[in-house]
Amino acid sequence: MPPPTATLSVPSSSSPSLFPLSSFSSSNNPHVSSFCPAPSTLPKFPSLSKPQTPLRNLTPLSAVSIEKETLISERPHTFLREADGGDDGSVRSRFQRMILEAQESVCAALEAVDGAGKFKEDAWTRPGGGGGISRVLQDGAVFEKAGVNISVVYGVMPPEAYRAAKAAADDQKPGPVPFFAAGISSVLHPKNPFAPTLHFNYRYFETDAPKDAPGAPRQWWFGGGTDLTPAYIFEEDVKHFHSIQKKACDKFDPSFYPRFKKWCDDYFYIKHRGERRGLGGIFFDDLNDYDQEMLLSFATECANSVVPAYIPIVEKRKDTPFNESQKAWQQLRRGRYVEFNLVYDRGTTFGLKTGGRIESILVSLPLSARWEYDHKPEEGSEEWKLLDACINPKEWI
């Protein structure tokens, strides 16, 4: 394979993510059993009612950007404000518990399969309320880079950030919009080109009534998904992955998997390339047309499906021998990943428009990616088969 004409090296970051990166999208823009430990097994931490370190770079809540985060020495027991934190039965409180448990369990599973790498953790808070926990494993035996981040944040969005978060044309706000957002976001980049990249993100979003519109109803919605981005196709792996996603969906509504599978194929579409980022999975957003309790349970089930859907594939492929040409193809596919995130991903747009720290916003990018001028794989080759599946989405199960 000819040498690359350009190589991107993205500095690593264990810094906090302002909000889970993956995709906020408009509803008009389609696109193992539970592994969560019992709450009693989670470490207990002090409350955030009094910050452990002085807050810096304070920004008034009336500002039209989200306040900068501040690293703290100890992660708290809760990121919810006192008005929310005392209500363990609220959707906010239960969703926070779910993402904390999911982060613990996913990181434990990844460290176990890696065998050498350990997650570095940063906890952070924000003057306007809330905070998050960023975990990054880098240069392990199996994973080049793996990030698993959670955030629970309050703030005020300018209109353009609201449009990035929820871009329905008939649902625009004239001024800054108070909001609450909580989510878990993860991107996993293995070293071996035969082990696929995985992305998953699940989030809950609420907007409050602006001060000049008393009595306006609070809006809420769920979003997220899990999708697979391999460099090479092993059909049994892809079928396994999609079957786990379908099983999670079918527990709630048999229409979910076909609907969210198509949404995923449509959303992760790189328009300027005419191809998808990978081989899909499920994706949904602005979901509020079902019972709120049902959707909370559905998001939890989806988060619980990540480990059984992905870890068996990595265990099977992590030690497969590969050559330089196959590694170069993996780097080229990572280039497509970078292009999608920087050009089309609404989560990235949301972070950039709200003044977040650039290293945090881009924490999901791989350490390295590759571009070659006018690269075309040989027709009929394994690389061509992957590209064909990205251009022409398939029904895997």
UniProtKB/TrEMBL annotation:
<keyword id="KW-0934">Plastid</keyword>
<keyword id="KW-0560">Oxidoreductase</keyword>
<dbReference type="Pfam" id="PF01218">
    <property type="entry name" value="Coprogen_oxidas"/>
</dbReference>
<dbReference type="GO" id="GO:0015995">
    <property type="term" value="P:chlorophyll biosynthetic process"/>
</dbReference>
<keyword id="KW-0809">Transit peptide</keyword>
<comment type="pathway">
    <text>Porphyrin-containing compound metabolism; protoporphyrin-IX biosynthesis; protoporphyrinogen-IX from coproporphyrinogen-III (O2 route): step 1/1.</text>
</comment>
<keyword id="KW-0627">Porphyrin biosynthesis</keyword>
<keyword id="KW-0150">Chloroplast</keyword>
<dbReference type="InterPro" id="IPR001260">
    <property type="entry name" value="Coprogen_oxidase_aer"/>
</dbReference>
<dbReference type="GO" id="GO:0006782">
    <property type="term" value="P:protoporphyrinogen IX biosynthetic process"/>
</dbReference>
<comment type="similarity">
    <text>Belongs to the aerobic coproporphyrinogen-III oxidase family.</text>
</comment>
<feature type="compositionally biased region" description="Low complexity">
    <location>
        <begin position="9"/>
        <end position="33"/>
    </location>
</feature>
<keyword id="KW-0149">Chlorophyll biosynthesis</keyword>
<dbReference type="GO" id="GO:0009570">
    <property type="term" value="C:chloroplast stroma"/>
</dbReference>
<dbReference type="InterPro" id="IPR036406">
    <property type="entry name" value="Coprogen_oxidase_aer_sf"/>
</dbReference>
<comment type="subunit">
    <text>Homodimer.</text>
</comment>
<keyword id="KW-0350">Heme biosynthesis</keyword>
<protein>
    <recommendedName>
        <fullName>coproporphyrinogen oxidase</fullName>
        <ecNumber>1.3.3.3</ecNumber>
    </recommendedName>
</protein>
<feature type="region of interest" description="Disordered">
    <location>
        <begin position="1"/>
        <end position="33"/>
    </location>
</feature>
<dbReference type="InterPro" id="IPR018375">
    <property type="entry name" value="Coprogen_oxidase_CS"/>
</dbReference>
<dbReference type="GO" id="GO:0004109">
    <property type="term" value="F:coproporphyrinogen oxidase activity"/>
</dbReference>
